């Protein structure tokens, strides 16, 4: 999913950083964060007209940036609009899956959040727009390949941390929050020959993902080792000790802390001994993140697209992973605003 990566860049080499412990306060535990600003924005967003105005401004910024790079949102998705999405969704929808309340709020400037075909059909071009400056230290150079480079940097850091911790060989992967499969495809590149099961709560994203997968397979004549499933990450229904690696790419910031902790516990359950939970996320310790949290305009735009941002910032990820039964995680920066974290299940 799209993230704070729009302000990101990657250093020449991954840099190891230490984990920090978050406080239990209701305002973000970020150095220099303005608690009055955070509280004021939270209060303002309780009024729908204010939130709607901020969200529209955020989406306009995404679209405008995309147009500067030659991305045409309307044209790119026009052909997809002709698909019978009701039929596609019916094929992927699991009616026994209950959607939690935290998932029914607006995300990424879409009133229906991830539960809309509009957001599902635009996710690829939106990711390219949002992550366009990910490689530029100044956050000014627009690169249409920024999203792919960000995911590739996660792969590099993940592989390095897995090797350092002597993790088990990776054959079966669970991709949590797979959406349309962008993160799943990146995992298939990192682990050739592995099989990826992508799970997501949005039947809209999964319907688009399965449709696009069929198109790719028809074009290449090759079946992908990828299965996209509708399900709850806190209760995947997968057998215990059945996968070698669980990945969460830009997912935790879209969850309340309680959900992230529950997912970490589920990951520990489904992992085989020596398997790994791998997380790539924006890094609240980064200087750019801290500057945005202090600046009224960027923070207001950012917060309007990420309803659970403060809960993510306040979560002590290291402790949460260890509380779930995993070993102490190791961490690298995969961009100047992102971190890759890997925790192993004890053999």
In short:
This protein is of the alpha/beta class. It has 13 helices and eight strands. About 7% of the residues have low confidence.
Descriptive account of the structure:
The chain is of the alpha/beta class and 347 residues long. The chain has a single domain, classed as Vaccinia Virus protein VP39 (Rossmann fold). It is built from 13 helices and eight strands. Strands 1-7-8-6-5-2-3-4 form an eight-stranded mixed sheet. β3, α8 and β4 form a beta-alpha-beta unit. α5 crosses α8.
Sheet with the most strands, sense and barrel status: 8 strands, mixed
Unreliable parts:
4-27
Report the structural category: alpha/beta
Query: What is the fold named in CATH at topology level?
Result: Rossmann fold
> How many domains comprise the coordinates?
1
- Succession of helices and strands: EHHHHHHEHEHEEHEHHHHEE
Number of strands: 8
How far apart the termini lie comes to 32 Å
Instruction: Determine and state the CATH class.
Output: Alpha Beta
Please describe the structure with a list of short key phrases separated by commas or semicolons.
347 residues, single chain, Rossmann fold, eight-stranded mixed sheet, 8 strands, 13 helices, 43% helix, alpha/beta
Chain-wise SSE layout:
Elements: E1 15-16, H1 35-44, H2 48-68, H3 73-78, H4 85-92, H5 117-130, H6 146-164, E2 172-176, H7 182-190, E3 195-200, H8 203-220, E4 226-230, E5 243-249, H9 257-270, E6 271-282, H10 287-294, H11 296-305, H12 309-314, H13 317-323, E7 330-335, E8 338-344
Helix pairs in contact: 2-5, 2-11, 4-8, 5-8, 6-7
């Amino acid at each position: 999913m799209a993230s704070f990566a729009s302000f990101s860049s990657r250093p020449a080499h991954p840099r190891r950083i230490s984990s920090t412990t978050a406080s239990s306060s209701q305002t973000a535990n970020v150095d220099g964060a303005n608690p009055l600003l955070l509280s004021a924005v939270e209060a303002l967003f309780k009024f729908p007209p204010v939130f709607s105005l901020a969200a529209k401004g955020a989406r306009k910024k995404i679209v405008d940036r995309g147009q500067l790079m030659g991305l045409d949102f309307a044209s790119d998705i026009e052909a997809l609009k002709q698909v019978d999405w009701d039929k596609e969704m019916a094929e992927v929808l699991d009616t026994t899956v209950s959607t939690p309340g935290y998932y029914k709020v607006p995300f990424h400037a879409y009133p229906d959040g991830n539960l809309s075909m509009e957001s599902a059909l635009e996710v690829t071009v939106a990711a390219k727009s949002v992550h366009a400056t990910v490689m530029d230290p100044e956050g000014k150079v627009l690169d249409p390949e920024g999203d792919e480079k960000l995911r590739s940097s996660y792969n590099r850091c993940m592989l390095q941390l897995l090797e350092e911790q002597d993790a088990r060989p990776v054959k079966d992967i669970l991709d949590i929050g797979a959406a349309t499969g962008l993160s799943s495809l990146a995992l298939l590149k990192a682990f050739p020959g592995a099989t990826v099961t992508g799970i997501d709560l949005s039947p809209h994203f999964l319907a688009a993902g399965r449709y696009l997968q069929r198109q790719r397979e028809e074009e290449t004549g090759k079946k992908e080792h990828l299965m996209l499933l509708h399900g709850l990450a806190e209760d995947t229904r997968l057998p215990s000790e059945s996968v070698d690696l669980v990945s969460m790419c830009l997912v935790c910031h879209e969850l309340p802390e309680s959900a992230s902790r529950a997912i970490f516990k589920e990951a520990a359950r489904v992992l085989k001994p020596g398997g790994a939970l791998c997380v790539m996320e924006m890094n609240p310790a980064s200087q750019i993140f801290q500057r945005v949290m202090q600046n009224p305009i960027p923070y207001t735009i950012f917060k309007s697209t990420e309803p659970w941002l403060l809960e993510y910032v306040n979560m002590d990820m290291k402790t949460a992973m260890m509380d779930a039964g995993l070993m102490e995680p190791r961490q690298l920066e995969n961009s100047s605003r992102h971190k890759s974290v890997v925790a192993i299940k004890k053999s």
